[in-house]
Amino acid sequence: MEQGLDESLLRAAVEQSYNAVVVTDPGLEGAGQRIRYVNAAFERMTGYTREELIGHTPKILQGAATDPAVLRTLRQRLAAGQGFEGSAINYRKDGRPYHVEWLISPVRDDSGRITAWLSIQRDVTHERELEQEARLLSTAVESSAASILITDTEGCIVYVNRGFEQITGYRRDEVLGETPAVLNSGEQSARFYRDLWTTLERGETFRGTFLNRNRSGALFYLEQSITPVRADQGQVVRYVATGKDITERVRMEEELKRAATTDALTGLANRLSFEQLLERDYERCRRYGGALSLLMFDLDHFKAVNDAHGHEAGDAVLQALAGLVLANVRTADTVARWGGEEFMVLLPETPLAAAGELAEKLRERVAAHRFPHGAPVTASFGVCALRDDDTCRTLVRRADEALYRAKHLGRDRVECLSR
C-alpha cells in the first residue's frame, strides 16, 4: 500500500513538474531510443501531444540547426552507460527552433541494468536570446568610438571601453579603481562640478562639455552625458558616462569665431567686433556711470608707402603698427582695425585727458619706430570721450571729426574733441 502511494505521488510530481520530462527506452541500436513517456511540460515545450510522441525517437525534434557533434557526444556517453548534460537546438511541432538544456540520467534496475533513460529538459531560448543580446551589446559598447565609462556609487571606475582608451590615452588597467578625476584638467570651475553632482543626486542625467587632460597632458573637449543606473529596488548602483571627443569641432568653432571677429592681416578686432564691444561698454557706462573714451587714428601718407614699396611692405607696416599699439595699451582696452590704414582704440574707464595722453604716447612711439621698409611713418590721432547726449554712432563720428582736424592741421598730431 505504501509503495503504491509513493508511485502515485512520484507520477503526479513528474507530471506536474515545471521542467519537461521525457523517458525513453534503453535501446541505442538502429533508430535509437523510443519515447515511452512525456509530461505535460514537455508537451507545452514541443507543441506535440503525448500521443504524437510516444513510440517515436527524439529525432522527431531535431532539424537543420541541431548540432551533430552534440548528438555524437550524447550517443557516446549513453553507450558508455553514463549520463549527459548539455544543450542543443530542437524544433517544435510548428517548425520553430528552441534552445533546450538536457540532463539525461540512466534508470537502472536492482541488477544495475539500464532499463530506461530519464531526460529532464528546460527551454532556455529566452535566456540564450538575452545572452546573445548581452554579447551584442557588449561588442557594440566595446567597439564604439565613443568613450564609455562606468563608476560605482563611490565614483570608482569599474569599466571603460576601447573608445575611452583611444580618446584619453589611458589603458583600462591604469584607471580601474581610480576616479574620473584622473582626467581633471583644473580648467573648469567648482560650480561646474557642483551642478554635475546636484543633477545626479536628483536622479537626472547630466549633460555637459568637459575640458579634460589626456594621459600625455594635452587638453581635450569631451561632450558627455552621465546617467544614474538604478537597481530593481530603485537605488542608484552605477553611473554610466558616454562621451565623444569634440576637440576638433571646438577648435573649428573657435577658428570660425576668430575669423568672424578678427582682422586677418593684423590679428586685431575687426570692425564688426569693435562695434559690438563699443555697444557693450556704452551700455555699461549708461547703466553704472564711468568714463569711456575713443581714439581713432590712421597712418599719414600711407598710399605713398604702398606705391614706393609695394603692398606686401604696406601690409608689413600695418602688422608692425598693430603690435606696437597693443604693446602700449591695457588688457582692458580694445584695439581694432577700422578699415584700410584706419584704427580704433576703445578705452573703458578712461577720461578724455588720459586718453589724450595715451594718444600722444602712441604718436611718439609710431614716429620713433623703425618699420620694415625703413622709411619714416607717422600717424594722426583723433580723441573724444563719451558725453551724456552721445550714442555709439555720434561717439564714433566725433572721433572721426577729431582725426580729420588732426590731419587738416598738418598730420602727425593728436586732436582731442571735448565738445
Describe the structure.
The chain is built from 14 helices and 15 strands. It is α+β, with helices and mostly antiparallel strands. The protein has 3 domains: 2-124, 2-Layer Sandwich (Beta-Lactamase), CATH 3.30.450.20; 144-250, PAS domain (Beta-Lactamase, 2-Layer Sandwich); 263-417, Alpha-Beta Plaits (2-Layer Sandwich), CATH 3.30.70.270. The strands form 3 sheets. Strands 2-1-5-4-3 form a 5-stranded antiparallel beta sheet, sandwiched between helices. The longest helix has 19 residues, at 125-143. 24% of the residues are buried. The mean pLDDT is 92.
- The CATH topology label of the largest domain is Alpha-Beta Plaits
Average residue-wise pLDDT: 92
Structural class: alpha+beta
Query: Number of helical segments?
Result: 14
Give the helices and strands as they follow along the chain: HEEHHHEEEHEEHHHEEEHHEHHEEHEHE
Q: State the strand order across the main sheet.
A: 2-1-5-4-3
Question: Outline, from the CA principal axes?
Answer: rod-shaped
User: How much helical structure, as a percent, in the residues?
Assistant: 40-55%
Class of the largest domain, according to the CATH hierarchy? Alpha Beta
Low-confidence region ranges:
none
Q: Nearest-angstrom radius of gyration?
A: 43 Å
Query: Between the first and last Cα atoms, what is the distance in angstroms?
Result: 126 Å
**CATH structural architecture of the largest domain:** 2-Layer Sandwich
How is the biggest beta sheet arranged? 5 strands, antiparallel
| Integer count of domains | 3
Strand content: 25-35%
What is the CATH superfamily of the largest domain? Reverse transcriptase/Diguanylate cyclase domain
SS elements, strand count? 15
